[in-house]
Amino acid sequence: MGKSRTIHAVLAADIGTTSLKAALIDMAAGGKRLLDFSRETYKAGGGAAEGAGAAELWEAAFYHAVRVLRERMPGVHIEAVCVSGNGPTLVPVTGNPHSGVSLPPLHWFSPVLPAASGAEAAVSFFLPRAAYFKENDPENYAKTDLFLSCPEWLSVRLGAEAVTALPTPHYRPYYYDESQFAAFSLDSRKFPPFVPLGVITGHVSVEAARRSGLPAGLPVVAGGPDFIMALLGSAAIEPGLVCDRAGSSEGINVCVRKPPSTADAAAHSLRVLPHAIAGLWNVSVVLPESGILFDRYRLETGRQNIPYEETLKEMVVTESGEARFHPTLQKIADSVKAALETLRVAGYPVREMRHSGGQAKSPLWNRLKANICGCTLLVPEIVDTELAGNTAAAMFALGEEPSIAAACQKIAVITERIEAPHSRE
Predict the structure, then answer these.
(1) Could you tell me how far CA 142 lies from the centroid of its own chain?
(2) Does position 52 have pLDDT exceeding 50, yes or no?
(3) 14-26: per-residue pLDDT in tens?
(4) Statement: residue 160 has pLDDT above 90
């Protein structure tokens, strides 16, 4: 009998609003990529991780997930760890970033401060939150030595250098630059220097190894915001490819070579941002309440403990061969169809799209959605595509692939193709 191969994996983690996801993902091709998965809720009852000690809750959830994964997969050799997280959440840190005091996070949903009247238009996702913090809590702002995004805060706690991973140079104004520091009257020294995605920024320290059970010296790779890493992990990285990232909210994202004009984007309510791959752009329509509507229905009807699939089946009634949806499900369906129509009218017709995020874990919803959208739905093996994107970044950092894009194409394995009865014309 031949020897079983040693499995070389990436430990990928993503910091969400209410829970942390972590997975062991095999770097080798030819078999199942997703070896094991763990989701850790920050506190009983859900809700955002707010208040003093919230950042430490992320750390505790991460360490617990690591212990669970290592106990279940003891033979896996972890080659690197890469963390992503909800952007643009910031953690104010006083003192040494590796061991200093972390003040309550400035969450992505926290209040923001508009730039001063007459200042250059601000597009930063991060600085308006820091500016609000400065104006409303000047004492703690003065104590803050560094603002770290949530994935970078956890990476630093593991042993990485205090840096900010920049997806591409085009993203710099969406993070921070000198003109916007001036517009918000913020001290630029409180913000880390930039490094590219997919570089090794440090190694797991002896102390972090003791707390986590990870081996000391394990490379820590620069991840990024969940949105960016999810796009990468879907491998929608060529012009014309589409990623439907669907969870509590939803965004249908089209990869394009040339962005629409500002006027055209405004006319069709399109969100236009640089893509995670340099030289490309992402054009999207955002559905802010897609999954929230379903979760609200479950809560209001006392079905929060009933399996997702079972609840969906209850919301679909077939009469004379015709499917009729519960009003909540119909509202979600209508919003998806409206988003696709918006993209079509704007010149971006969608004939097939990669489905990712929490909603993509439902086989029934995937089938229904293909019919609703009138287009082909591609479901990857790793539907939490931010974790796949983290793995691709680590594979590039370790020299396993020549680029993050090449790594993405290896990791994003499509395992199901759902054809709609009538494709969109």
Answers:
(1) 31
(2) no
(3) 998 888 999 999 9
(4) yes
Would the pLDDT of 86 be above 70?
Answer: yes
Interatomic CA distance for residues 29 and 25, integer angstroms: 11
Cβ of 386: how many Cβ atoms within 10 Å? 34
Which structure tokens are listed for 372? 């609703």
| SS3 of residue 168 by DSSP | coil
Query: Could you give the CA distance from residue 16 to residue 24 in angstroms, rounded to a whole number?
Result: 18
Beta strands in 204-241 (DSSP E): 219-221
CB atoms inside a 10 Å sphere around CB 318? 8
d(CA 117, CA 353): 42
Query: In this predicted structure, what is the pLDDT of residue 232?
Result: 96
Residues 368-402: tens digit of each pLDDT: 899 988 999 999 999 999 999 999 999 999 999 99
Q: Residue 336: CB partners within 8 Å, gap ≥ 6? A: 250, 252, 287, 290, 369, 372, 373
The answer, yes or no, to whether residue 44 has pLDDT greater than 60, is no
**Contact status, residue 292 vs residue 335, Cβ threshold 8 Å:** no
| Helix runs in 54-177, H state only | 54-72, 127-136, 138-143, 150-158, 172-175
The CATH number that domain 8-224 falls under is 3.30.420.40
Handedness of CA 402, 404, 405, 411 (dihedral sign): positive
Start-to-end C-alpha separation, the chain:
55
Exposed/middle/buried for residue 317 (C-beta within 10 Å: 0-12, 13-18, 19+): exposed
pLDDT confidence of 316, banded at 50, 70, 90?
confident
> For residue 327, is the peptide bond before it cis, meaning its omega torsion is within 30 degrees of 0?
no
pLDDT tens digits, 96-125: 999 889 999 999 888 998 876 444 568 999
Q: How many angstroms separate the CA atoms of 15 and 57, rounded?
A: 10
Q: Full-prediction pTM beyond 0.90?
A: yes
Check if the beta carbon of residue 57 is closer than 8 Å to that of residue 21.
no
* C-alpha–C-alpha distance, residues 276 and 264, integer Å: 22
Domain with CATH 3.30.420.40 in the chain: 8-224, 228-418
CATH of domain 228-418: 3.30.420.40
